[in-house]
Automatic annotation (TrEMBL):
Keywords: DNA-binding, Transcription, Transcription regulation. The keyword Chloroplast does not apply. Pfam families: HTH_IclR (PF09339), IclR_C (PF01614). InterPro entries: GAF-like_dom_sf, HTH_MetabolicPath_Reg, Tscrpt_reg_IclR_C, Tscrpt_reg_IclR_N, WH-like_DNA-bd_sf, WH_DNA-bd_sf. The keyword Transcription applies. The lineage of its organism: Bacteria, Bacillati, Actinomycetota, Actinomycetes, Streptosporangiales. Residues 10-69 form the HTH iclR-type domain. Gene3D superfamilies: 3.30.450.40, Winged helix-like DNA-binding domain superfamily/Winged helix DNA-binding domain. Coiled coil: none annotated. It comes from Nocardiopsis rhodophaea. This is IclR family transcriptional regulator NdgR. Residues 70-239 form the IclR-ED domain. It comes from the Bacteria.
C-alpha cells in the first residue's frame, strides 16, 4: 500500500497510523494487518500491542485487533463544546420540572467529572460544582457510565461498589439508574445515558437532591423526566451529526 502522499516524515508515526487506518474498516488479525499495511509482521505486532497498552486498540472475542475505547474518549473531548451547548438549556428545564439540581457527567479515566450543572435556587439541595471529580463506583451517574463498558472494566469498578453486576444489567435494560446514599449520606439521584456516534454512552444526565424529598425510590418520581431530558439531548446531538455529514 502506497502511503507516500500522507507521509509525515516520521516513520514510526506513519506506521502507527497505518495500523489505525487499517482497523477503521473493522477487526483484523495480525496476518490481515500485515497484508493491509504492508508492514513486516514483527513491526505490525509491536505497534498493535503498544497501541493496545494505550487503549487505542483492543481485541474482540476472537482475539482480532479492533479500535479501542481511548479513541472514543478523545472524540468525546473534541465534541464537548457541542455537547455542552445542547445540554445546558435541557439541564435548566430538567431542574425546573423536577425542582432538583441537574448535572451532566462525563467519564475521564477512573473518575467521572461534572461538566455542566443547573442548581436548585434555594432550600435543601445537592450542589456539585462544575469540574468536580467523583468516583466511578458510587452514584447513579457512575452506574450509567459504567453499565455499557466492557466486562473487565465493569469487574474492576465493582470492587467496593454498593451496586452489583445485576444492578448494571437492570440499568442497561431500563436505560436509567437510581441511587440512594451511595455517593453521599442523605443524597439520592436519578440518571440516564447520553449517546454518541454508534450508540456509545458518552455522558450521563442526572438530578440529585435530599432523600427527604426524593425518597428511597427516586426513580419512581423522576425517571421519566430524566430519561426525557436525555432523549432531548440525544436527538439534538444526532441531528447536528446528520447536518455535518
Amino acid at each position: 500500500m502506497d502511503n507516500s502522499s500522507s507521509s509525515s516524515g516520521v516513520g514510526v508515526l506513519d506506521k502507527t497510523m497505518s495500523v489505525l487506518d487499517a482497523l477503521e474498516s473493522g477487526p483484523a488479525s495480525l496476518a490481515q494487518l500485515v497484508q493491509i499495511t504492508g508492514l513486516a509482521r514483527p513491526t505490525a505486532h509491536r505497534l498493535a500491542v503498544a497501541l493496545e497498552r494505550h487503549r487505542m486498540v483492543t481485541r474482540d472475542s476472537q482475539g482480532r485487533f479492533i479500535l479501542g475505547p481511548r479513541l472514543g474518549e478523545l472524540s468525546i473531548s473534541t465534541g464537548e463544546d457541542r455537547l455542552l451547548a445542547v445540554a445546558t438549556p435541557v439541564l435548566t428545564q430538567l431542574r425546573d420540572l423536577t425542582g432538583e439540581s441537574a448535572q451532566l457527567y462525563r467519564r475521564q479515566g477512573d473518575v467521572r467529572v461534572c461538566v455542566a450543572a443547573s442548581e436548585r435556587a434555594s432550600g435543601l439541595r445537592d450542589t456539585v460544582p462544575v469540574g468536580s471529580e467523583l468516583p466511578m463506583n458510587a452514584g447513579s451517574a457512575a452506574q450509567i457510565l459504567l453499565a455499557w463498558e466492557d466486562s473487565e472494566r465493569i469487574r474492576r469498578s465493582l470492587r467496593g461498589a454498593p451496586f452489583t453486576a445485576a444492578t448494571l444489567s437492570q440499568v442497561r435494560r431500563r436505560r436509567w439508574a437510581q441511587s440512594v446514599a451511595e455517593r453521599e449520606q442523605g443524597v439520592a439521584s436519578v440518571s440516564a445515558p447520553i449517546t454518541g456516534p454508534g450508540g456509545r454512552v458518552i455522558a450521563a444526565v442526572s438530578i440529585s437532591g435530599p432523600i427527604e424529598r426524593l425518597g428511597r425510590s427516586p426513580g419512581r418520581l423522576h425517571a421519566q423526566a430524566v430519561t426525557s431530558a436525555a432523549e432531548k439531548i440525544n436527538e439534538a446531538l444526532h441531528s447536528n451529526e446528520g447536518q455535518t455529514r
